[in-house]
Design brief:
Blueprint lengths: L11 H6 L32 E9 L9 H10 L1 E9 H14 L5 E4 L4 H10 L14 H4 L3 H6 L1 E2 L2 E2 L2 E4 L6 E5 H7 L7 H13 L11 E3 L20 E4 L5 E3 L4 H15 L12 H9 L3 E6 L6 H10 L5 E3 L11 E3 L4 E7 L7 H14 L13 H6 L7 E4 L2 E4 L36 H16 L1 E3 L9 H23 L7 H23 L11
Parallel strand pairs: 1-2, 1-3, 8-11, 13-17
Antiparallel strand pairs: 3-14, 4-5, 6-14, 7-11, 7-12, 9-10, 15-16
Helix pairs in contact: 8-9, 9-15, 10-11, 15-16
Length: 532
């Protein structure tokens, strides 16, 4: 689903994510009496105006280069802020050209996919400013857990500021009204999930006397992966080989179990027929058009628009999320998200301008500030400024801030222009995502997922923060090969009985080196110890 600031589709759910953690740092911000009109504080060194350049990506159309939001930033921080925003689809080409030119902007936003390759490569070449000396000076940086800082270390040093993402992953969601109609219970195993998928396909769960529904909505790259714990998670290093080395989940026994189930469902027409070529948007439509009864959900970033569309078709639709299944070792948990998404890096050229670095970090820290739900209104001067002022950039409806329709297109608020504009919450549970959705069915679903996450254990992926040179250079291609072969197994053009052969093919094509390189850096060899 991630995941980064969709300011063109303005909804209260995204507002709740876009706000950030902690109070102003008293060392970095000069204490002055609040002004009569705004209650704002001015940063240090107000006598000097710094030109600050930035480059970042956006999903959807970039905001305007001249706007009220930019003016507010320039006035508050006494800067001439010149951000460049690139559509996500063109970002790869643009960022490659930027780095090739050697003219790296002061602030650069990078996608999570850039961390292993671009970030590591250029950090080693000295392109970025070291961040660690500043961590204890800024509240939102101090709150980042050590394990996340460790994940962005390069040769022992930190050159990146992680952008917050909750440790929530997506979970399996089922049409509860269909379960009730057919007298079925909520599945607690893959065998039960398979039976529900078959029933949704054959037993008319929507009651229209037509065979026009089916079980699992799934698209290209076998996405979602519907893992019910690290045992089945293709991205979790949980299984171990005969030598005690962790191996990637995509070749693990749990994955074989899942692929076997899908191959059986495919034969029965109980999963998306054209899954191998269906993009993510069209996969969503399979569920939200009322065709399929099993899909995924997550507290952060659910689409209100999609849900409203489904409820127009099936007004009485209800939903239930699945708790993790117990695996063969007796463990019940989900894999933890990394706890961060993209990263922010600063140009190494700033090392000669320490006061400018402070000004930039003041801006970044402000952009990561977290506001409790009851402070997300005009009574909190910082929040009001960040959101573009009440009545101009946003309104408050039923106690929830809702962005104006032209919030992003007209650049009405400063929040649109910060490279890191996602709040760093003290705890994931402090976000209260459920109250930001307008539809009761969606709010109830999200609340149930949030409550589940408060009670379950999370598995810490042991390769988090580690590097494999072989994975960096050929891992993506190798993963695609394995994924394509598993697609064939689901469709029946390659038998699932070839599983052991596929595992050996993975190893022969470079997988052995990837396993060796990652395991060389893993300290904890007992998977049970990684459940937190």
């Amino acid at each position: 689903m991630s995941r980064k600031r969709r300011f063109t589709v303005i909804m209260a759910a995204i507002m709740s994510v876009s706000l950030v953690a902690c109070s102003q740092n008293t060392q970095s911000v000069k204490e002055q009496p609040a002004t009569a009109t705004t209650g704002e504080k001015q940063p240090t060194n107000v006598e000097e105006t710094y030109t600050i350049t930035a480059i970042d990506y956006r999903y959807g159309d970039p905001p305007p280069t001249s706007s009220p939001g930019l003016t507010m930033i320039n006035e508050k921080f006494n800067v001439k802020y010149e951000p460049t925003f690139v559509p996500n689809t063109a970002f790869e080409e643009k960022i490659n050209a930027t780095f090739a030119s050697g003219k790296i902007p002061d602030i650069v936003g990078l996608m999570s996919a850039d961390i292993k390759n671009r970030y590591n490569k250029f950090a080693k070449q000295g392109a970025f400013l070291e961040i660690e000396p500043y961590i204890n000076e800024y509240p939102s940086l101090k709150m980042v857990p050590d394990f996340i800082w460790d994940a962005v270390r390069v040769d022992g040093k930190i050159y990146a500021i992680p952008q917050y993402s909750p440790k929530y992953q997506v979970v399996t969601v089922i049409r509860k009204d269909w379960l009730d109609k057919l007298g079925l219970k909520v599945p607690t195993s893959y065998e039960e999930l398979k039976e529900v998928a078959l029933a949704f396909t054959n037993n008319d769960p929507d009651g229209n006397s037509k065979k026009d529904t089916y079980g699992i909505a799934i698209g290209q790259d076998i996405n979602p992966n519907f893992n019910q714990g690290p045992y089945w998670d293709p991205d979790a290093w949980y299984h171990q080989d005969q030598d005690g080395n962790y191996i990637p989940g995509i070749i693990g026994e749990g994955r074989k179990e899942f692929i076997t189930m899908l191959s059986e469902l495919y034969k029965e027409g109980a999963m998306t027929k054209d899954y191998a070529i269906l993009n993510w948007g069209d996969t969503n439509k399979e569920f939200y058009s009322g065709k399929a009864g099993i899909f995924i959900g997550t507290p952060r970033g659910m689409s209100q628009e999609y849900m409203d569309g489904l409820l127009k078709i099936h007004p009485n639709a209800e939903f239930v999320s699945l708790a993790p299944f117990q695996d063969k070792y007796g463990n019940t948990a989900l894999t933890s998200g990394a706890g961060y998404n993209g990263i922010t890096v600063l140009s190494a050229k700033l090392s000669s301008e320490p006061e400018k670095v402070k000004r930039i970090l003041e801006m970044i820290d402000f952009g990561r500030k977290f506001y409790p739900q009851d402070e997300r209104n005009e009574k909190n001067a910082d929040f009001d400024w960040w959101s573009g002022k009440i009545g101009v950039g946003y309104d408050v409806t039923d106690g929830v801030p809702v962005n104006k329709e032209n919030f992003a297109s007209d650049g009405l608020a400063p929040s649109t222009y910060f490279v890191d504009n996602t709040s760093w919450a003290p705890n994931d549970s402090d976000n209260d995502y459920s109250i930001t959705y307008q539809t009761k069915q969606l709010a109830d679903l999200v609340e149930s997922i949030e409550m589940m996450y408060k009670d379950i254990k999370l598995y810490a992926n042991p390769i988090s923060g580690l590097e494999s040179p072989t994975d960096n250079t050929s891992g993506a291609e190798l993963r695609k090969y394995v994924m394509d072969e598993q697609v064939k197994m689901i469709a029946g053009t390659r038998p699932v009985s070839d599983w052991d052969k596929l595992v050996q093919e993975y190893k022969d094509k470079g997988g052995v080196k990837i396993i060796q390189e990652y395991n060389a850096g893993i300290k904890e060899k007992d998977p049970k110890a990684l459940f937190k």
